[in-house]
Amino acid sequence: MNILEVKDLDMSYKTIDGDVEAVKKVSFTVKEGESFGIVGESGCGKTSVAMSLLQLQADNGKITNGEIIFDGKNIVGLSESQLREVRWSGISIVFQGAMNSWNPVVKIGEQIREAMREHYPDKTKEENTKKIIELFDIVGLDSSIIDRFPHELSGGMKQRAVIALALSCDPKLIIADEPTTALDVVIQDQILKEIRKVQEVLGLSLIYISHDIAVIAEMTDNMAVMYAGSIVEMGKTDKVFSNPKHAYTKMLLESTPSIVGPKKKLRSLDGEPPSLINTDSYCSFSYRCPSPDDNCRNRNIEMELTKIDSEHYADKCCINCG
Ligand SMILES: Nc1ncnc2c1ncn2[C@@H]1O[C@H](COP(=O)(O)OP(=O)(O)O)[C@@H](O)[C@H]1O
Ligand SMILES: [Mg+2]
């Protein structure tokens, strides 16, 4: 069964220069117990998708079209109080740098209990503490951390505690948005393994977001490649890796050292994602594409994912480029 169905989602930010179309016609589904990856360079719209799912986008951001069906119900347009029910206990998020958002003057355990009290008002402090100890065990933290202040913990420990916080209200879906980017490499690897373990042990659904396609390979069952606010390729992670179709996916793969291997030549990621204000071409990749033609920049054509096979789709414009 699908835990999440995103259909034709559009989200934009109002700015003095015009509307930034950060999420364009994004559709994907996440099954129960599945790990779904979203990859793309910085500025492609990954965080905007994540925040839209929780409807926690910045004040100048607005969902302008589409549905987000979570656990069978469209949550777009729900009231703040209805959304509070969904957040944490339905969908929770671990975001980049979350470890720095702990309140410095309140003990870690107390901060987690505070979140739990809102969703489980009938549970006692002892019951909540017991649950926190169980969660700490799962994420590899000692129970004594409950009584520590944030500054007494290392970066890796703080981020593990964030994962425990995200799990504390029994969500069905966890979104991890670049959760390890601020950590050093060894700790990154440990945290990745921890998240994967938690997801599998608890049977959770996971949306894992990263700019690093090698991490997506390790962490996910299915994946989407985002470019300039749109999904340009999507499918079973194995298939996207073994048979990439979109020129942008190929470019990401050919520029990742651990995938290319030591003997082959690395391709540098030339250019950068376009500004998303008043986009003027049908294929957003046309300005970086190795083999664009006139049609790619024809505004009258709509982007469309074409079926490669039943578990693999790519934007029809760019499947023969690159
Ligand atoms: N509050 C905001 N106001 C205006 N533009 C924004 C805002 N937040 C993000 N953007 C723009 O939206 C686009 C997508 O950003 P983001 O979702 O953060 O991408 P990613 O997470 O892939 O790096 C970028 O062009 C970014 O500059
Ligand atoms: Mg981001």
Helices and strands, with pairings:
Layout: E1 2-15, E2 18-31, E3 35-39, H1 46-54, E4 61-70, E5 73-74, H2 80-86, E6 91-95, H3 108-119, H4 125-138, H5 155-167, E7 173-177, H6 185-202, E8 205-210, H7 213-219, E9 222-227, E10 230-236, H8 237-242, H9 247-254, H10 257-260, E11 305-309, E12 312-315
Parallel strand pairs: 3-8, 3-9, 6-7, 7-8
Antiparallel strand pairs: 1-2, 1-4, 4-5, 9-10, 10-12, 11-12
Bound molecules: adenosine-5'-diphosphate and magnesium ion.
Adenosine-5'-diphosphate (ADP) is lined by residues 13, 15, 20, 22, 40, 42-48, 58, 60-61, 276.
The value of Rg in angstroms is 20 Å
CATH class category label: Alpha Beta
Average pLDDT:
92
User: Architecture, CATH level 2?
Assistant: 3-Layer(aba) Sandwich
Lateral arrangement of strands in the main beta sheet: 6-7-8-3-9-10-12-11
Give me the strand/helix succession.
EEEHEEHEHHHEHEHEEHHHEE
The CATH superfamily is identified as P-loop containing nucleotide triphosphate hydrolases
CATH fold-level name: Rossmann fold
> Which sheet architecture does the biggest sheet show?
8 strands, mixed
Spatial separation of the terminal alpha carbons: 36 Å
Ligands, deduplicated: adenosine-5'-diphosphate, magnesium ion
- List low-pLDDT spans: none
Helix percent band: 25-40%
Structural class: alpha/beta
Tell me what portion of residues adopts beta-strand conformation: 25-35%
How many E strands?
12
Shape: globular
Number of discrete helical segments: 10
Q: What is the total number of structural domains?
A: 1
